[in-house]
Amino acid sequence: MKKISLLFCLIILQAGLLCGCRLPHKSSSQKPVEGENKSGLVKVQDDKKEEKKEEKEKEKEEPGKTEIVETEDTELSLLKKQINQNSCGAGVALFGYVDSEFTRTDLSFYLEFHHLTKEYPFLSEAACYMADGQELYAIVPPNEKGRVTVYPSDITENGEYADDKSHPLFEGKPGEALVLRCNFSEIYSNVLVSVTDGGGAIDFHPSISLMDGHLAELAGVYDFSVYEETPDERSVEIATEILLEYGEVRQGLENGMKLMYTGESEIINGGSCMLFVLGTDNGEQFVQEQLYGVCDNLIYIYDVFTDTWNAAY
């Protein structure tokens, strides 16, 4: 009986070995790799695609900058063509009168808001030379080879110019425009400007005409100034009414003084102001006591001691 039981156990054991045993499967405790997808493949970022994307974005930004530069270059190029079409050797524009104590910062601010710079934006980036004086000009050569050179000049006892070409004050680069401050006297210029076209040259003394306050006519020079229209009668009336509300003017009139519009204008703080004088009239002559500038509903008072305009209110 024992032999039969032992034999039966051996048969069962052998059957188990032949069939094999399978252990239950345990899930792996290993964490998935970051960036791994369901198939077990790891995603790799395409750096080249990112770089191309950044390059495209930069390309979108660059055309804007290029467009601004091209616009300014185009305006300068068109002006040079106009100079040549008029058979002139240089282009000159009058900004107007400025403070003789202007710094470069003051000048930059002045140019930013001036109507001539709005018409010709490249002037805000032009070269600048500030000689002694109160008149401001823009000078442009006729082509890309042309240069602008500024020399000191004086007047002799005989009323003739004495130019010193041995010591240039400013020498421009080819094709470069210049913003020039000069001239204390309204009678003569303290500089000589020479502009070449790559071959010949034209020399002139920039000045303001005493007839109309415009750029004095110069042979071979193209005037590209932007002259503002003369104020109409209604504008003068409005400016007069503004002054009549100012206490100092009202008191002066009560004391027998007179207020007169000079017919002139001046750029003050970037605005074109009509000029008025308050003074006494003794029948033989009018004696000016105070000079006022009016524009944009603002009153400016001229200080003869500091040679400056100060806002009244």
State the secondary-structure class. alpha+beta
Number of helices: 6
Categorize the overall geometry: elongated
Largest sheet: spatial strand order: 2-7-3-1-10
Tally the beta strands: 15
Q: Low-confidence parts, pLDDT < 50 over ≥5 residues?
A: 17-45, 59-70
Q: Strand percentage, roughly?
A: 25-35%
What series of H and E elements makes up the topology? HHEHHEEEEEEEEEHHEEEEE
- Characterize the largest beta sheet: strand count, sense, and whether it forms a barrel: 5 strands, mixed
- The portion of residues assigned to helices is 25-40%
User: Termini, distance in Å?
Assistant: 132 Å
Please state the average pLDDT score. 81
